[in-house]
Structures are given as C-alpha cells and as structure tokens.
Amino acid sequence: MKQAEREKLPPPAHDERRVFIPERIAVPPSFAALRVLSIEHLGGKTMGTSWSAKVALPRGADVASLNRGIEAVLAGVVAEMSPWEPSSALSRFNAAPGGTWHLLPDGFFKVLSAALHWAERTGGAYDPTIGALVDLWGFGPAAVAAGLPKPDAVNAAQASSGWQRVKCDVEARRVFQPGQLQLDLCAIAKGFAVDEVVRFLRKSGVANLLVEIGGELRGEGVKPDGSPWWVALETPRASQFTSAQPLDAVLALNGISVATSGDEQRYFDRDGRRYAHTIDPRTGHPVAHDLVSVTVVAEDCMTADVLATALTVFGPEQGPVFAAENGVAARFVRLDGERLVECLTPAMAVMLN
What we know:
Largest sheet: 8 strands, antiparallel
CATH architecture of the largest domain: Roll
Order of helices and strands: EHEEHHEHHHEEHEEEEEEEEEEHEEH
Number of domains: 2
Low-confidence stretches: 1-15
Strand order of the largest sheet: 2-3-7-8-11-16-17-18
Structural class: alpha+beta
Number of strands: 18
CATH class of the largest domain: Alpha Beta
Shape: globular
Mean pLDDT: 88
C-alpha cells in the first residue's frame, strides 16, 4: 500500500503509532476560508507507477483542467528523462556517438546538474551514469540474458560509467557524450516530477495539496478541517517480521517532502539471495547489506528522492554517519535476524513527538 493511500485517517494515539512533526509548520491565514473547500482526488499512471493528487478546492473548481495540466507536466518529464522511451531526450543522448555535444531541455539539465552535485557530495555512492549497470542487472528497459551477469560484463559496464566523465557547458545548457555513457535518472527524476506537479498546482491557485508519485510525496498547506496531511512512513516487508508494529509512524507533510528507498517493489531472488534494484556504483552490483528501507525528509522531493538512494547505497553503518554530518533527516530500517531495527538521524529524531 502506498503512503498516500494510508493517509486517510488521522494518526492514532502515541502509544499505537509514533508521530513525526516538522519544526516549522505553516499556520493557515484563515480557517474560515478552509471550511468552504473540499478535497478532490486526482490520479493516473506515469513512469511505470501511479500518481495521485489530493487538492482542497472551492465548489465549482475546474478539476478536469487541473488533471489535464498534471498529465501534461508528467508527460513532459517522461519525454525528457525516461529511459523506457526510445524518443526521450535521455534515450537520444545515451544512443549518441562519442565526442558529441547535446543541448538538453531545461528540466533534464536541471535534474542532471543536481544529480552530478550529489554524485560529487556522496563520493559516487549515487551516480547518474550507471544506466549500463542498471540494464545489465535487469532493472532497465534493455533485454538481458537469464542468470546473473558475468564479471567481465559488470567490469565493462562499470568502465563505461562514472559521473566524472560528464562534461557540462552550463551557459549553453549542453552536455558532452564521451562515448557509451548511459545516463539513468530514475533515482531523482520521480522526485523532480513531484516538485513540478506541485509547482503547477501552486501556479493554478491551489495552496492545499498532497502529491504522490510511486511513494514519493510532497504536502503543502492543510486539509479543509485545518489538520496537516498525514502520511504513513513506509516499512517494506514489515509484515514478515515480528517487530513491525513498533516501527509504525506517521509524518505531517506541511511544506516538506518525503521519499523512501526500499527493496520491496523491484527485486529478484536467486540462490537464496535477494537482489534489489539499487545498484552500488562503486562495486557494480546490487547493494548487499541488511538495510530494508531508508526514508528521507527534505524541503523538496527531488533532494529527498536522490538522498534516499544514496543513503541506501552507503548502508546501515556509513549511511547514518553521512546523513548526520550533513543534517539530513533520515530513518533507516535494517534487518537484524528476524527483527526490524530502526535508526533515526538527529534531524529526524527532533521531529518525533
């Protein structure tokens, strides 16, 4: 069940479920103005998953127009950055010959610039150039042979990757294709799309909203009754383990975003081991540790999205250290035998009420 699907009810008492509340909560200018609003539910399919938007609107608002506008925003992101669309700007860049420069659309260039920033900040724990590795392990659009990749194939895919190989001409908004470089922005583009949908809705006059794409969320304003947008924090595979219930928690989304990286949705099992879709660029292999999920709370959803992936790659020891040193609000859930164990960074723990 997606987070937004589980936000229908107010949070239960503290002894049943823990509550995370950001330090900064925006107070509505007028509760009377809120009472004339009602929540409309919009949604559809995008990027291989679903999207939803809950918007508080006055009676007679043009809901159909908002839905069409959101669909147009999402179609634009797909047209620029989807590796599954052969005609997308990203696919064309990946297929381009070496030694060529390419003018990128604004959104694509913005996301790639942010991706390269975090690649440098994380020392390559996150890397937007591992498209060849993603394909090789069967998590991309390319067809792959049955069985695990051969070591030589992994080495070759790694050799064609590397964020340091990307050259950007910021003023001209161009990027250099050095040859065989395969971009993959799936760990950041979905969060960017959430931010873009929110931006569109705000420009359309919607101040109170909750937007989700595949479990990445951003909330603005409040509900018509004045309460915040409550979302349940995901704990993938929680039902399989004895300690799942104490980890239940909800977060008030009010001008902030949340993203979770876990191994529940995209993985395959082979010889008794689970191979999750998150690739460690430093090894060329799917992450091999006991982290079940990482949740990040941030000002914008693009940052939350990319950091959730980077912290997952860092793992249960290095991840919390990096997050704490950089002031990241994060929640780590790892598997300890048959139990799930939680670790909160200081910036996350301060939200706990």
